[in-house]
Amino acid sequence: MQQRLDKFRAQKEAKQDAGQYVDHRAAKAENLAAREARTGDSASARQNSEAARQSPGTGRQTPEVGRQAPETARQAPETARQAPETARQAPETARQAPETARHDPGTGRQAPEVGRQNPDTGRQPSEAGRQPSEAGRQNAETARREPDGLRPTPEFQQKLDTFREQKEARQDAGQYADHRTAKADNLNHNSAARNESPAGPKSEAGPKAEAAVTQPKQVDGGARQERIEPAAQPHRTDGATAPQQRTGDTPGRPTEVPGANRTSEPRGLAPTPEFQQKLDDFRAQKEARQDAGQAVDHRDAKADNQAARTEGPQPRAGDTPQRSTDVPGANRTSEPRGLEPTPEFQQKLDDFRAQKEARQDAGQAVDHRDAKADNQAARIGDAASPEQEADRSWAADQVTPRQATPRSGDDQNVPRPNDTSREGSATGDGENKETSEGADGAGKPPKGRDATGAGSNDNDGDGDNDGDGDGDGDGDGGSSDDGGSNGEGGAKGPDDKYVGPERRQGEDPDFDPAAERRRQPDRDEQPRTDDNPPRPGDEGFDPGEHRGELRGEFRPGVHDPDGLFSEKERRIADRLGQDDASVHPRERDDTVEGKKNPDAMVRLSPDDPGTVTEFKTLDKANSNTVRRNVLEAGAQVHPYGGGNAVIDGRDVNLSEADARRGYARAVGQAREKNQPMPDQVKIILGDGSIIDFPED
Amino acid sequence: MSRSTHIFLATDLAPRAAADRLAEALGTHATDRDGDVYVAVQLGDAQVGGEVAVNTYGAPPDPEPDEISVLDGYPVAYEIRRVPADEEATLAAARQVFDTLVERLKWPVLLVDNLAVLVAAWNPAEGRTDFPSGTSADADDEAEWSRYAIDAH
Question: How many angstroms away from the CA of B148 is the closest CA of chain A?
Fold first, then answer.
């Protein structure tokens, strides 16, 4: 490489000697000298002279000069403004200095030539002539070779100045980056690295050689140390940053000189007016498009890419993951390239897809957010925090299709359309053959039934006696309407059109069983709270408050040892008991304002987990009263996930016609006004008979 | 709760706004819970009041002549419950609330027991009427309450 470089230089010099092309450096140096001569002892001249004087000409120190050359330009705004050539030449000098120093160390022979050939500049006869720096030598060399009198014409200089002003204005406006400083720094860094001795500091010229440039009055080692630091900095690849303030910068002078750090701009080249016009037009159009959002400003992206290349490969938008495209999320652009899913994640993904497809096949809506949350959790190692889990549950809740009529009382005990337990507990219309034989009167234990009958409390032993089999634990929330309306798709009015407030699986395209299960976690795994009440056999189980199959503890009749029922309520309970139902009063909870307090829990068989039931006693025997009470009962049991109602018309001698009409009117109104209805309604007529609604 | 007591109010205000006015008249405040609004006032050792909601106990859609009632033209229903619960005491407390509202709100108002029996009514034109025990709020006793009926059909 060095050999080739030497060869190139030799050829270049030969060409220059042969006049085959012009070395502008000489002309520029001359221009600079001329300007300095006009302006007197400029800072640049002082610095150049000082640098030349301080340089011992060993060659090893010259990199310091070269590195400080752009600094010189930055710290000499006056000079830079007055002699932009100086600023441009400074990095050039820096670039050439180390090379020259390496191959022609300490010659300094040309320096006197400068003085001889440019006696009128006032610069060359300075210290540079005695102890020439590499910059001085370069200037001298170029001055020697350059035909005297080559200077820019006033017109060219005017164009150049105009162009520079425009460019500086654009740079100030951040419209494009100036890479010259970075290049100069890189050059200096490389030069320093080449010349750095393992034995010590790069400069043996002492602090003067460095401090002379940036801190003329500071000559201690600290200054040198500060000046060395930039060379040790990583390469600046963006080139867009302004020169940084350094410790050694001369106080009181601006450290950022417009144009002073230019290193890459073609020296002396100015765009033609036509080109400049085209350039301006293009930029104006481009900016207009960018402002209008029609075009993309790639500059930031380029800078980012540059940084990324420096730091190593990074995932970028649009990168194609290294995996099958049929995997959900395979085209996620944010996933690092080359990352394969873990087997666990893949398994979860597959499971999810299977479930999703199943729901899709069933025509049910898909909750994309939940899936995304799961995927996200999987990506981070499936180590979701409780908060994240809660968020996921929340997300599932948010997208779980709600019923047409919101049920504020939805909880773990809410029977759901997919509860298979309904089949097991339903005996239909209160005809509980299993227990009817033991019923000989309200409140009395069944004949022949052992009060502590075998198998008592075993109903929670198998953990699944509700027959749901799916482990969701909500089967005991089923109501005694299981064999009635709900099990057959909802309450049907006389017009056979009404479907109860619960939309049923298969009928509701938005019903999501998975989401329902998430909303109703396995109660056996949950602490016994209001949302996860005790089951039969558990401590604290209250058959009036809590649902659950009583199995061997089931006794037809009314069980109200504390007299919680009012007189009218008791009459209704007794009537139900006559039909072998087990009726427990529900204790009122008046601690919560507005809380609905249905009157009883009614079970029709040992396997019936119980149904919250509202009792109503009519004061008038007309259909309006029946309708109103049915609707009011619906509102009462609604917060409990639904329930039944018993309307007692015995005191007013309610007719069957009014009962039927009233119920039918209630159904119609509920459908039209989206009001909740009881799942099943028993209306006790004046003669004591009961009509169950909806009817088969 | 086998029995209930309601005060029906004729106002153009939505239930939430009506609840505020009720609370103001009763010297209390309205409470929101689960999307519903409640107004309760302390009367003696009992808390009396309940949910303020749209009256859903009016006539059914396309009512037959015998299905009209005095409730039909009263858009807001104010449920009166009593804590501790006492059916007889609840009706007495409801009367007190009714009296207060008549005096301070000046809205046409009905006091109805168990969604069937018209207990009392008031409007600016007719003033207050305490109906005989057992007066039906339905067509059965239309002649009794027709002065307080507000055409809703």
Answer: 18
